[in-house]
Amino acid sequence: xxxxxxxxxxxxxxxxxxxxxxxxxxxxxxxxxxxxxxxxxxxxxxxxxxxxxxxxxxxxxxxxxxxxxxxxxxxxxxxxxxxxxxxxxxxxxxxxxxxxxxxxxxxxxxxxxxxxxxxxxxxxxxxxxxxxxxxxxxxxxxxxxxxxxxxxxxxxxxxxxxxxxxxxxxxxxxxxxxxxxxxxxxxxxxxxxxxxxxxxxxxxxxxxxxxxxxxxxxxxxxxxxxxxxxxxxxxxxxxxxxxxxxxxxxxxxxxxxxxxxxxxxxxxxxxxxxxxxxxxxxxxxxxxxxxxxxxxxxxxxxxxxxxxxxx
Amino acid sequence: xxxxxxxxxxxxxxxxxxxxxxxxxxxxxxxxxxxxxxxxxxxxxxxxxxxxxxxxxxxxxxxxxxxxxxxxxxxxxxxxxxxxxxxxxxxxxxxxxxxxxxxxxxxxxxxxxxxxxxxxxxxxxxxxxxxxxxxxxxxxxxxxxxxxxxxxxxxxxxxxxxxxxxxxxxxxxx
Lengths: 311, 174
Description:
heterodimer, A: mainly alpha, 10 helices, B: alpha+beta, four-stranded mixed β-sheet, two-stranded antiparallel ribbon, 6 helices
């Protein structure tokens, strides 16, 4: 038996680490959602489209701009030394995923903005001739293809980084998993696909996006299984961390909100939608979004709670 | 730094000295006293440890810092924080397995500096200087002839959370 006592009582650190509140999970969720939207935008823009056929990829860049701004707002609220945030952009720290993330976020804005510009109808930018000319150039098939590729590359980088950001902090055993990057990316793709089929104007595209989302949800289940198996087989510290989700204080919210309501139930509903057994409903995509948000909350909070067990 | 747990009585003089010397804000501390009670009744053993930042050789708080505010100073390989570069993202707090850092009320991350402002003047850190039982030793671990090197070469010792992989540089003599 070992009993540890300490006189330390630092705010945010004791009795257990709780440095990150709602802002970081919300940012990670919105960042992942935008990442997923960008990848899907890139894919959809690369496809041949009939003249006059509308696509959800025309709407996603605008939604992305709004969501990433909200996410960065949450991130800014979390900072304790807010007026010094510009220091992020005076350096690139190669070993710090947070530094990489700061620069990736700077790339996200212009890519989304170019995508949004390309969706504007002729005449909207008549007051700004230079911008109108640039937008016309963005609408050319070649530029559209390049913009699509750029969306996919930046989207994947953004999605993976949100997971690696946590997994690089090895002092928190629950986060010390290489699966976290792909898991957050796939969860972001799922959120992106769910929202895209919610607002898709074209029925065929909507059905395709539902199919995509089902694949993402099944992949997410597989990655969650790998995440837990990896911890359970990686020694006592990691097994104890996994117990937070397997009988510990975060078990109910993880299995009910993340897995049950956030993955399994929408998967069943969306499978029925694809089979045309039930009409399209907004319940499934809303559940997917709720599950994605709950995943970030559970992983961030449970991860902070996890710690090295040696004295 | 080397701390003799046989001499330490947990009087907290080191904690008070640090707060005074470094103007540590109320409700926060850069060093603290830990107690570990081991064994089963009636065979119990109490070890008292004066704890602080371990100024690790492989400091995760430095690698995760997005601005370079957390850095290893060349002189003494001490881990320090440049307050004017810190954005208060708290990644370093999450990365430290010892919970040695906190957010200063002014917004930046803060922690033990080994009283570098004293060390560069040839003085010992405040905690070491005031210890009434002389349980704390401070010196150059890279010098095999230094007192700290000789102590850890000749006495059984342990470090905190060695399996966290950070290579801590505070050693406790058993």
